[in-house]
Amino acid sequence: MYLRAAHAESSIKTLLEFIRENPLGVLTTAISSPSYPLLQSSHIPWVLDFISEDPDAPVKGRLRGHMAKQNPHSKAMIESVTATGSPSTSQLQQDVMVLFTSMHHHYVTPKFYTETKPSTAKVVPTWNYSAAQVYGKATIYYDSSYPQTSEYLSQQIRDLSNLCETSIMGYTGQGDRVEPWKVSDAPERYIEIMKKNIIGIEVAIESIGGKFKMSQEMGKGDREGVIEGFTKLGSDVGNHIACLVKERGEMKDATAKEAAK
């Protein structure tokens, strides 16, 4: 990921919070195989276990996810770990990458640059977005007949369901909110069958980077034009982008002011 200084986010805590708020990540691997493509990617919703915001910590957090065993991506990972690993769980030799992107992103028209466009016209379109990218080692849990794998998968699906039901759907059971769906609402035998058809993936986050590309590189007048332009769109995405442009612009100005002291 290209981390231009104006857009880069250096706070590990902020990046981990971003992942929690945007749990759908794209897992990418590069596994040599006679049967499957070298590069494969899969969209996976993740549960994040926070460990440390210390940039020198060997592991900053852990991502827990699962995917269908019939997915060719799963088959390539199983093929790789079974070549040297145990029959229940093993670690991929190659690092993996997981990319997270905010649901709020948008094209930026040069018409929004109300300061530079009228004066020089030296402006071009761009795209505002936020993203975080992690690298680390992945442990694969692929045989649910083993207690360690079965326990991992049970915890994973419980935690992911609870995260999505409460944080995303808002089903908290409090006040006028409905109760969240629980894994225990489904027949136990059915869940056991489902577990046989998925694999668990745990990624130890060894490296993390991210950016909030929200027009920080522009002058204050142009940023104000971008805020106004997105607000006038009258959409949820436009309003969210406008707020982020304002927030990130103020952060940039505060940093510059502090550096000038």
UniProtKB/TrEMBL annotation:
Pfam family, any one: FMN_bind_2
Cited InterPro entries: Split_barrel_FMN-bd, TR_PAI2-type
PANTHER family found in the cross-reference section: PROTEASE SYNTHASE AND SPORULATION PROTEIN PAI 2 (PTHR35802:SF1)
Protein name: Transcriptional regulator
Organism lineage string: Eukaryota, Fungi, Dikarya, Ascomycota, Pezizomycotina
